[in-house]
Structures are given as structure tokens and as C-alpha cells.
Amino acid sequence: MLTGTAAWNYYAITQWILGIRPTYSGLQVAPVIPSRWSGFTAVRRFRGVTYRIAVQRSGPGNSVALKVDGVPVPGDIVPPPTGGRTEVLVEATLT
Fold this sequence. Notes:
Blueprint: H1 4-17, E1 20-22, E2 27-29, E3 39-46, E4 49-57, E5 64-68, E6 71-73, E7 77-78, E8 87-94
């Protein structure tokens, strides 16, 4: 059980610093991490799907380029998988 403060911190860290947020269109991956961080990995379950997320920094900013299962996707929303798949690999590069 989390207290109100602990729950709010978890929400702020995961959704606004690590940038992993649920949306109606899919899972948004838009990290806003300190420039000295080289990246991070995370696992997120969303709508019955496990998303394995790897974020790598290649520049000083927080603009993101996404690949989903090795295929580039526009924007920062990971679309829901098709064909009944239950695991997705997300690669995010910050520039």
C-alpha cells in the first residue's frame, strides 16, 4: 500500500520524468531525463501487453525517435500491437 505522497512520487517519476504514459492511442514514451543520464530500461504493462522499453541518449536534448520491434514509428506514441501479441520491444533514442 502506498501513502498519498509515495503514490504521487511514483506517478510523477514514471509518467513525467521517465515519460511512460498511457494514452487512448497507445503508450506514450517521451522521457525528460537529465542530460547526464545515458539512458534507462523499463518494463511496463499496458492493456494486457508487456512493453520492454530501452532509452538511450545520443544528444543533449529530449527529442525522441522511437522504434517498435525494430521498425521506426513517427511521434512518441507506441501503437497497440496487432495479431494478439503480448510483448513489444520499444527502443527510444533521445537527441
